Structures are given as C-alpha cells and as structure tokens.
Amino acid sequence: MHATLPLMHNTTFPMIRRKRLETLQINLGYKCNQSCVHCHVNAGPTRTEMMTRETMDEVLAFLRLSSVKTVDITGGAPELNPNFRHLVKEARSLGVHVIDRCNLTILEQPGQGDLAQFLAQQRVEIVASMPCYLEDNVDRQRGDGVFQSSIRALRELNAKGYGRTDTGLILNLVYNPQGPSLPPAQTELEQAYRRHLGLEYRIVFNNLYTLANMPIQRFGSTLISKGQFNAYMRLLKDNYRERNLDVVMCRSLISVDWRGFVYDCDFNQMLGLPLELRGKSRTRLRDLHVDNLDDNPIVVKDHCFGCTAGQGSSCGGAFGT
Length: 321
Known about the structure:
Blueprint: E1 23-27, H1 53-65, E2 70-74, H2 84-93, E3 97-102, H3 115-121, E4 125-129, H4 135-142, H5 146-159, E5 171-175, H6 186-201, E6 207-210, H7 217-225, H8 229-238, E7 253-256, E8 262-263, H9 266-271, H10 305-308
Parallel strand pairs: 1-2, 1-7, 2-3, 3-4, 4-5, 5-6
Antiparallel strand pairs: 7-8
C-alpha cells in the first residue's frame, strides 16, 4: 500500500474555518464484506478495527449534551459492528436523525436477514453504494456478483417502503467514477439511473449522489501504482472552484473514528490527520465541548481539492453545476 500523505504536505489549499456543528459522522470500524477499488478507507474482510460498546456510549453521551441532530454512520460496513443496532436505537430514542452508509450486499450476509426490516422500523435514512447502473461496471469496481446482489437488496428495501415518496423512508444512491476522472453532472446522471433501474429492474430511489474519488488509501495507492497520481491531482486542482468552499461538509461535520478520536472529516481520519483544537492535536469525543468548535481552523491538505473540484463533492453529493 502506497502512502499518499507525504505527497500532499506542501498544499496550496486555502485555510477554512468551521461553522455550527450539525452532523456527527461515526466510523464503526474498517471491516467490510467487500474490497472496492475506489475505497478511501482500505476496508475489507480482514480488517479488525471495531468500535466498542463503551466508545459508542461516549458518542451517545455527546449527543445528549449537544444540539447535533444527525448521526451519519459509516465504516467499512458499519452493520458488521455487533453494537450497530444498539447505537441506532439509542440515537433514534434521542430524536436524532440516523443515516446508514450501506453497501447493499451486506443485506445478504449471514445474520443480516432482518436488517432491512430493522432499518425501516427505526426510520433510518439509507445512503447506498451503487457506482453505476450497468452490471459490468459495478462488478469491475466492486467484485463479481456485487451488481446482482445490490439489485436484490434494493428490491428488498423498496418492498419495505424505501425510496417511495409516500413512506418517508429515504433511499439515496451513490455514484463514484470508475477511475481518475471527475463525476458527470449529478442531475443528468440521476435521470439515467432512474430510467435504467426503473425500466430494467423496477427499482425506485429518492436521490443520486455523485462523489469524486479521493486520492488516499486504496484508490490513492492504485493511482501511484499506475503512475496516475500526479495527473489526477492536477485534474482536481485545475477544476477547483472557490465557491464550493462555503459548503464543504467539514464546515458543519466532525468525524469520529472507531477509537473515539475526532477529525474534521472522514478523509482526514483515513490520512491520520486529527482535528486540531486550541493547540491540542488529538482530541477524544468525550473531551470535546461543541461550543469550542465554532470558527476553529480545519486541517487541510491537497486531497481537499477533491471536495471543491468541478460541481463539488461531499457525503451529500454534488454542490452544484
């Protein structure tokens, strides 16, 4: 695995500061039932990092004391954490909106037969990986058989009411480019997804999010191996748009790793760049006072151009055209 952080230290990315904290993004661990080419976490079946029940309770204690109303749960495959459902139930009991970043194929894993029903009962918003609507492209990026498994999962979620306008059960899909290129226009691609998935498979969903691939971890290492890293960084920098700075997710989100340490975003977490707060370079969530975050500088490196290039990119999709 090639390290990309040493290639991004001399950054020209502008300094930005935090706004009001709205979202707590929790990484429950790096174990996953898949090993996707574009993964910025380097997640996979052999990873052992996993958030404990004790650390989850620190997350819940923070939610009780703060005004944060959205918890964004990610991984790896977060559902593989044995305490995933505990966190979801407790957060929902506090009136917090919960997002599950789901790879879809997890619904067919042993012990997950009732996962779709659980998510629907808790009214969890699902953000599901679906990097293309064509089978060959998906299997090339995520592994043989993943597309058909994803289709079966989407049909099960639709049957539970997800993606339908009359249920309030939100199902959003996520597109990632196949290689070192920027995503196409989100609106037009969403229409193509709706046509193909609707006509071929009778699948419905609420929104499509287009995300740029981050030049870190597995994807960044692949770029280096293929001699494409520098060209991809040039592409991101050449398409930088200053107006996207105002809406990047790190202004209103913090990321918590499986040990309970805090970062400005999930990408910084994967690079080992912790949130810096008043001279302290390593802060646990249990020691964080939310009011201290206002106007705090955000740790930036060259990978941040990935969020500001072109139409922009975040965990909530593109910012605009």
